[in-house]
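Schema walk-through. Below, the input block comes first and the output block second. Nothing else is stored per chain. Lengths vary across the set, and this one has 349 residues.
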Amino acid sequence: MGLADISQILFITAVIIAIAIVAKAILIPLVFAIILSLVTLPFVKKLESWRIPRIVSVITVVFICTVMALGFAAFMAYEMQNFLSDIPNLKSYFSQAADNLMQQVRELLNMTPKEQEELIENNKSNIMAPAGEVFKTALSTTYEALFTIALIPIYMVFLMYYRDKWKHFLVSVFEQYTKTEKVESAVSEVMTVSRQYIKGVLLVVLILAVLNSIGLLLLGIKYAIIIGIFSATMNIIPYLGNVVGCAIPTAIALATKDSMWYPMGVVVMYVIIQVIEGNLITPNIVGSQVNVNPFIAVIALFVGGLIWGIAGIILAIPVTAILRVIFSHSRTFKPLGILLSEERGEKGT
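--- output ---
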């Protein structure tokens, strides 16, 4: 790879990042749809082998996936109803905890109750303004998420129905860099990596949901099942998801339990589960399929978060794994494939 090739790669990368930022509302659901299409395509081909028309096969698979996703959402919504119905009790718990905290503040700062009330009143406007902005941001994010989710099944239908055209397009684009057989081999490997990665992630989430729920139930934490599932799902978001998933049950333990041993127990439980997940579960189930350099993975997470926010963080690892496969099958970009790979020595070259 010469200087001209490096300059070309940097220019193309800059253009892609610029397009990704400008057109993220369209591209985010498209990338999700591409990965999910690669995962579900074998089921479409299976239906086609039974002489079912392609359009019927595609719509059937997409419909089943959509129903499964809606079923999971309905289950979470049902469980969430119990949580929301107990909001008044939680408010009471948090109010009592806040009163205890304010009492400690008064003792620490030697403030009278009247002085404390005046302090809160004088700063109420400063507190409420950011709260209003947070609400507006949350509402806007919800609409964007619903729009993204609605586009994914539509994209999947077109991607899988016109898959022959996309394949010919990829061959024509990359034939100047490598042989047609190499392109077809890369596409096949990308499909395998994507499918194994998604299956692995779902299995990890299932295992973590069971472990989290059992641990919280043993500690007697309210809403153990819904929180356990939520925490496991948040694990899809690397690093940040673990913190958020642990913070919520810890806060509930602080509000609903009289002893500090319970929130401490929640934190210890989550640390133990994360150690097991990071060292045993994920490396054995997902790690071998991704094969991405950890340093590159961190950079990918950072860049994905800057460009597409939470969606970018979720997509960073699978997209990087796909790029590793594509580059490794190209004569020109093979050094990039080696850079993205976790393998070392002759095996990585």
